[in-house]
Every structure is written in structure tokens, then in C-alpha cells.
Design a protein that fits this description.
With 571 residues, the chain is α/β, with parallel strands linked by helices. 46% of the residues lie in helices and 14% in strands. The strands form four sheets. Strands 5-9-4-10-11-3-12-13-14 form a nine-stranded mixed β-sheet, with helices on both faces. The radius of gyration is 28 Å and the shape is globular. The termini are far apart. The N terminus and C terminus are likely disordered.
């Protein structure tokens, strides 16, 4: 067991390594910008946990920590253990996957309330609506998983519907049976529950109307599909129930779980019955519902631009349980979503407490005020039993006092057993020391149970060495190949120089592009991220235009071109 301090291996005069004890009792480091907090505390503790074989969840807010972590991981022969979240080439994770209904309500209410400080009477209803939609989508996701596990094709949950003269839904046709009809509107139910999927359901009033009004048809269609699959697999028409149950108890349980999910789906649609037959033309009768829908839509639409925060192709908790290293670049995450992600992971890790064998896990949060807020539940009291620790770093205590309130901050701080303080000039500083911490030199620190000033051993990583490890990581993971079109990638390869992909969240959000740096001469250029699906759509549109020209020729007038738009605005 470590005791909290290590003398440097170079000489006794080099200083102290302020390493957090490996007792899973949690720690906080306080230090203003330039105090040496990152190089004297954060990096040494990351290096220590890497060498001990811990799983690591590291939040990188500045975008500068990632390279250094890869360098340290490379030194520890653990570069292959690294996964990234929040970059164009990283893993995709569904942020709300592990959240229960209460946590979802708190998340959406916080997002909506922060986005729109007026019309607060609608915010609670909008959050409840979001939770209701997610509960429906989770049932669909469960049923989709059942079909997939049984090698069955659910197909697209596609519906077409018509409107009457008051713009209300009058008929619903199941896509596979009814097909596309002239003048019909189309809606396809998402098969997973994510913030992006919620936005698809409330992105327009017509989409939401179809989502709600199509519920009955969806449940009936899924029931027919399940019944057909069940009969085909077990020839139920020739067997009585007792005979079927004897064939395979497991098969019975599988079908029973599917029908339970279907029953739950129907009940969840019933919870949103007040939105049935919603008029698509705003009237006084529906003004309240419109306010709720608009509040929800306006709050979440910007959160849905990036698939890597909605698609569920990576299980972060499972990776941590296997001792992997996860770096979360949070430039595109709001504070609320960063908190939701961390809260979900903490609560999932806490469930390991009763397991006999557990890989130790460290959650390291630099600039912790960006992740922790009044809705945070870091589960510090039970994470220790689960062999998981939280190590946070902040510039000053005021940041968390403002976010949490003084009482909740003191409660959190009481669970952070080890406390290290580098230079900090903060009037709200409450750590009791006999040292004026505002006058500490860079890399000097004190701790809560000592009057002595220590000099921290610092880790400075040369940029060339960090780039070398970053390049090694990107080559192993085919990062540039994933980002560029085949044509551009071939040109880059022919150049024979080494290139690094650099993720700039502003550039990616605005232009869908990344930076590539030529490590030979340092030149940096912008490249558009290749979207294969978009390219296929463009090719398909060009082919349609070509076919139309072949059939109809090019005699259509500009007036003809405007007809579809006149029809649209007439609605």
C-alpha cells in the first residue's frame, strides 16, 4: 500500500510525487492556472495508475491531455488499451443508456431550463415528455434486440399517414403493407433510445403527431410480426401450449419477454395519450402542447449533430471492467451531458461492489466543475467497495461552491479523503492549513494534514515524443483512413510523410472537417471528414436526375419547378 508520497527515483532532492493512496478513498487537487497542478499532480497520478494496471476514465477538457496520456500509456506498454470518445474517429457511446427515469427527467429539465429561462411552466412538462418518448423507444429497442438475437429481420418501422382539411392525422398505413401513397407523409420509428432519436420524434410537429398517433398501429404490427415469427419457428398451429413449453423452456421465456416488452410499449404510449390527435395547425386548444414540444425541441436539437454521442457501439463500463483506458474529449459535450455520462458510469461501476474479482478503476476529472453539478451523484460512499476511485482537480473551490452550493460541496469534499493544494488565490478557500497557499511557488503544494511545503516532481513531456506516441496510436487504429475519402487517403499515403489528425471541435461542428499536420514540415491543412452515406445519397440523386432527363427531357420550366414549393407553403 502506498502512503501518499513517493520520493523521486532520480534523487532525494528532486522532490515528492503527490500520489493518491491506492485505497479508493478519493482525492481532490486544488490549484490555479500555472500552479503546476497538471504536470505535478494529474500526470503523475495517471502514470502511477497506468503502471498499476488500473482501468482509467480520463476527461480532457482542454484537448491537450490526450497526447500526454498516450505517451505515458506507450511507456507502460498500454497504448493498445486506449479508447477515445468525443472525436471524429473515436468510439460512439449512447450517453443516456444507463440513466433511469428520474435521472433522465433531471437531465432534460436541466438542459431545457438552461436553454430557455422564460416559459418555465412548460419545462417540467417538456422533460416528462422526453422521458415518455425514451421509455417508448427503449421498448422498441428491446424488441429489436429480440428479433436480432433470433436471426429475424424487424425491417423498417415505417408508416405513411394522411391529413384531413384541419391538418389532423386521419389514416395510418403500415409501410410494409400500405406502401408509399401519393400525398402521404412518412415517419419511421427509431430503433434505439438516444437524444438524437428523441429529436427525430419531436423535430417537427408532423413527426411528433405521427409518433403518437401511429402508436396503436405500431403495436398491432409488431404483435403480428411476433406471432408470425413464433408460429414459423415452432409450428404453433399444430401444438398445444403445454407441448410448446415442453419443447424449450428457454424459447418460451424468450417469447414471453418479447410480448411483455410489447405490452409495456402499449402502456407507455398510453401515458402520452393527451397528445393524441394533435393538430398540425396551431390553435388555442393546442397552444400548451405546442409550447411543451417546442421547449423540448429547441433545447436538444444542437445535441443531436454528432452520432458518436447517440449511437451505442461501445460499452464504456465493460471496457473499464477489463482495465481499458478511456479518454473523453468533452469539447462538444455540454456540462449537463458530461455530468450525465459520468454519473451513469459511476453508478454502473458502483454495482460491482458485490463482485469478487474487480479490476481497479480510476476516474480522473481535470477541471471538475465542468462535469460536476447539483444533479451529480458520484457515489463516492460505495465506489470504494467497488474498487473505483475519483480523483478531481479544480482551479479553486469557488468553482464547485457556485455549481453545487456550499452545503453540497462540503458533503462532496468530506468524501474526498486526500486533499492537495497547489498555489491558489481564492477567498472561498476552506482547507485548513498553516500555510498561505496564495504564495506557493509553481509545483509547490501542501496537503490537509501537514504544515510542510513540498516540491512536486513534475512530468514534462516533449512534444516530439508525445507526437510519436500519438502517431503510433493513430496508425494502429487507422484514424486517417477512417476520416478521409478513399481518393484523398490514397494521395496522403503517396506523400510518404507522417500525418497526425488533430480534432478541433469548432471546425468539426461548423464544417464537418478535421486538421491534418505534416510531421515532416509542420504544415497543417483542413480536410473534410468523409461521409459514405452522404456520398451514396448524392450519387442516388444524380442518377434520379439523369433518369428524369432521359424520360421527360429538359423542357420543364422554372414555373414547374416552383409548384412543389407552392404546395408546401399552402400547407
Amino acid at each position: 500500500m502506498s502512503i501518499g508520497f513517493f520520493k523521486s527515483s532520480n534523487s532525494l532532492d528532486d522532490g515528492i510525487r503527490p500520489i493518491v493512496k491506492d485505497e479508493f478513498s478519493h482525492a481532490v487537487c486544488i490549484g490555479e492556472t500555472g500552479s503546476g497542478k497538471t504536470t505535478g499532480f494529474v500526470l503523475p497520478n495517471i502514470e502511477d495508475r497506468l503502471n498499476r494496471g488500473y482501468g482509467l476514465l480520463i476527461y480532457d477538457f482542454k484537448g491537450t491531455l490526450s497526447k500526454n496520456v498516450k505517451y505515458l500509456a506507450d511507456k507502460s506498454d498500454r497504448l493498445n488499451d486506449i479508447y477515445e470518445i468525443g472525436t471524429a474517429w473515436g468510439e460512439s457511446i449512447n450517453i443516456i443508456k444507463w440513466q433511469n427515469s428520474k435521472e433522465l427527467y433531471e437531465l432534460f429539465f436541466s438542459i431545457i431550463n438552461k436553454n430557455d429561462i422564460s416559459n418555465s411552466s412548460w419545462h417540467s412538462s417538456a422533460a416528462i415528455l422526453a422521458v415518455g418518448i425514451i421509455e417508448i423507444l427503449r421498448c422498441i429497442e428491446e424488441l429489436y434486440g429480440w428479433f436480432k438475437a433470433n436471426s429475424l429481420d424487424m425491417g423498417d418501422l415505417e408508416f405513411f399517414y394522411s391529413l384531413d382539411h384541419e391538418d389532423k392525422v386521419t389514416s395510418v398505413a403500415w409501410g410494409m403493407d400500405g406502401g408509399s401513397k401519393n400525398g402521404s407523409f412518412r415517419f419511421c420509428y427509431p430503433k434505439s433510445a438516444s437524444i438524437k432519436a428523441v429529436n427525430e420524434c419531436v423535430g417537427t410537429i408532423s413527426n411528433f403527431a405521427m409518433f403518437i398517433d401511429g402508436g396503436e398501429a405500431l403495436c398491432a404490427s409488431l404483435k403480428a410480426m411476433l406471432s408470425r415469427a413464433m408460429n414459423e419457428k415452432f409450428a404453433l398451429s399444430t401444438k398445444r401450449f403445454a407441448e410448446f413449453k415442453q419443447i424449450s423452456e428457454n424459447a418460451y421465456e424468450q417469447f414471453a419477454s418479447a410480448f411483455k416488452a410489447l405490452e409495456k410499449l402499449s402502456k407507455n404510449f398510453g401515458k402520452l395519450a393527451s397528445y393524441r390527435e394533435l393538430s398540425l395547425t396551431k390553435t388555442d386548444d393546442y397552444a400548451g402542447n405546442y409550447g411543451v414540444i417546442f421547449s423540448l425541441n429547441s433545447a436538444i436539437y444542437k445535441l443531436c449533430d454528432f452520432d458518436f454521442f447517440s449511437l451505442d457501439s461501445f460499452d464504456a463500463v465493460e471496457a473499464l471492467n477489463k482495465g481499458k483506458i478511456i479518454i473523453v474529449q468533452t469539447g462538444l459535450l455540454s456540462d449537463d451531458l458530461a455530468n450525465a455520462l459520468n454519473k451513469s458510469i459511476c453508478m454502473s461501476l458502483a454495482k460491482r461492489a458485490k463482485l469478487r474479482d474487480k479490476t481497479p478503476v480510476s476516474i480522473i476529472i481535470d477541471e471538475a466543475y465542468r462535469v460536476i453539478n447539483k444533479n451529480s451523484d458520484l457515489a463516492t460512499d460505495i465506489l470504494r467497495e467497488a474498487k473505483a476511485e475519483i480523483i478531481i482537480a479544480i482551479q479553486n473551490e469557488s468553482q464547485l461552491v457556485n455549481k453545487l452550493g456550499e452545503a453540497k460541496y462540503k458533503e462532496l469534499k468530506g468524501n474526498l479523503t486526500e486533499q492537495f493544494v497547489f498555489r491558489c488565490n481564492d477567498k472561498n478557500h476552506s482547507l485548513e492549513t498553516d500555510v498561505d497557499v496564495s504564495k506557493l511557488a509553481t509545483h509547490e503544494f501542501v496537503r490537509q494534514d501537514s504544515k510542510e511545503i513540498f516540491q512536486a516532481v513534475k512530468i514534462f513531456i516533449d512534444e516530439a515524443k508525445a507526437n510519436k506516441s500519438e502517431l503510433k496510436y493513430q496508425l494502429q487504429n487507422n484514424v486517417i483512413k477512417k476520416l478521409l475519402s478513399p481518393k484523398i487517403y490514397t494521395e496522403i499515403c503517396a506523400d510518404k510523410n507522417d500525418y497526425l489528425a488533430i480534432f478541433d471541435e469548432t471546425l468539426f461542428e461548423r464544417d464537418g472537417a478535421v486538421l491534418l499536420q505534416n510531421l515532416h514540415n509542420g504544415d497543417i491543412k483542413i480536410y473534410e471528414v468523409y461521409d459514405k452515406n452522404m456520398e451514396e445519397k448524392i450519387i442516388s440523386e444524380i442518377e434520379k436526375i439523369a433518369i428524369e432527363q432521359m424520360i421527360f427531357g429538359s423542357s420543364a420550366s422554372a414555373e414547374d419547378d416552383r409548384k412543389p414549393f407552392r404546395h408546401f407553403f399552402k400547407r
